[in-house]
Amino acid sequence: MIQRTLDAYIVDPNDKSVFMIQTTLAKRHDAEPGGSKDLRNKYKGYTFHYIVVAGEQEIEIPMPKAIDMMWESRWCIHADEKMLFPETMTARDIQCLPRYQAPPDQSFKTPTNSVYISNDNDSIKNTFVIDPEILVPDNLRNPHILNLEKDRGHPQNVMLTTRGEVDVKIHISQDATSPEAMWFDIKSDLDNSIKVHAPPFEVAGPSYKLSASSHRGNLFIFVPRDRTALVAVSVHTWQGCPVIVSKKLSENLNIISEEVGECGVNRLPQENKYVIGSWDDDRKDEIQVLDARRVYLQYNDEDFEKPVFGFWQRFAEGLGLVRYA
Known about the structure:
Layout: E1 6-12, E2 17-24, H1 33-42, E3 47-54, H2 65-68, E4 71-78, H3 81-84, H4 91-95, E5 115-119, E6 124-130, H5 143-152, E7 158-162, E8 166-172, E9 182-188, E10 192-197, E11 208-214, E12 219-223, E13 229-235, E14 243-245, H6 247-250, E15 253-257, E16 270-276, E17 285-291, E18 295-299, H7 311-318
Parallel strand pairs: 2-3, 3-4, 5-7, 6-8, 7-9, 8-10, 9-11, 10-12, 11-17, 12-18, 13-17, 14-18
Antiparallel strand pairs: 1-2, 13-16, 15-16
């Protein structure tokens, strides 16, 4: 029987706290004093918290007298085996990204042509049907959209910003025949998921220009088939911004320019550029990624399963001890 599979600790220098973490699948877990004493000597003046992550069984945890009094708090967290030992993803798995099951390319919502949502805390989850031929009176529209239109010199159909997550579907109305481009501006601090549904370019209608960012999360962009799009991804760090493409979309994607590393101060930010579809199309959608940890691209009718990161990463994030720059 395995008693202990992993010892780890997390240090929070701001709160002067140390979290000692041990994992076990046994019914009895003996807390050994050696490592705990070393931590106490290394982080003098800190408070110590003891955490055991166990399976779903009842567990007994004898605590040696030598370290019994050093803990500010003691916790036992129960988790199933899949959480404790997630399957390892290979590079091949990442490239063949699981896909999202999108709804049919239609919506029964009443179309509109001006959406503005700004939220400091909560996530934004909604579905919009946009028709650029609808005239919304300026006295009903948000001043931020009016000012943005004045500064940039073009219409602004959707503008969303939040410190939480975004999960939105944008349908371009099947009735829209205007050739004028539509503009979507969507920014979040955490994960940002954007699904665009639009008729194929064989049908008369507008192109769209999407500007999106996810400052501390991943950006998931789902595009319609039978359309051409230019994708530009801004790179702000030497690691670059990985672009993970689904197997189906990769068959229609070409790299225009891509560069990682060698990021002297005179070379940032830079843009990696890609094209989805044929260069021969006169009309092209445009997707501008301003900021993200990773970018996932795929068609909106492909199956998708959101990537799940390892247990320890999620556990540390839940304690509020890990922040992404």
